[in-house]
Amino acid sequence: MADNVILNIYDLVPDQQDAPQQQRSGFSRMFAGLLEPLGFGMYHTSVDVGGFRYQFGATLGISRTSSPIGGGDSAESRRYVPGNGHYRESIILGQTFFNQKEVNALIQKLRDSKFGGDNYHLAHRNCNHFSETFATALILGNELLDDGTDNVRLEKWPKWVNRLAKTTSSGMSRDSEMACDVVAEARLALECDKKVGWGITSAVKKSQSSVDRSKKKELTAKQKEVLAKLKSKSTK
Asked: For residue 23, is pLDDT > 80?
């Protein structure tokens, strides 16, 4: 059964700790109103799949909480959201056939590679880089396996979410240890180089094996038909 992969987006604004809450909210709206028309807002994102919410931050690295059904905001799900984050919206990016065991393995691969807490960088490897890499692996796993190019992209991913960071790091070489290469790191986490000719998830493997079995049955039936014709000719 497929699960929705949901992106949750929070507006990030300069934290005005000395101002009253009402004044801070007003400042947040004003700040967002100045940046958004220029396409340079600041955002925090997380990804929901299978009833859990995953996000990436400094020190902790990848964290997990329970998530509200269909995305959204709750006291538990915003436990690791920055204090200056204001919930904006949730977007269904696509669907995945990963079961929980496979999601856990994928998260561990990402954590062991380049998404540990010490790897966090505001411009070059932030929460949005993680969300896009994680969602890409979940949704486009088999396309990443079949397509060796870097042209594979999530159709519903909102490019404006990380535009400010990508503009800041645009001069950095893709070979840099610090820079995040979404497609390459999604492939690495899925171990695509070890799965040539195989499906990424167990659900895909099962569907492929059932297709193979049906093909075998079809071939057997054809063979029986040919044998029957040969028999009829031999008796004439």
From this structure: no
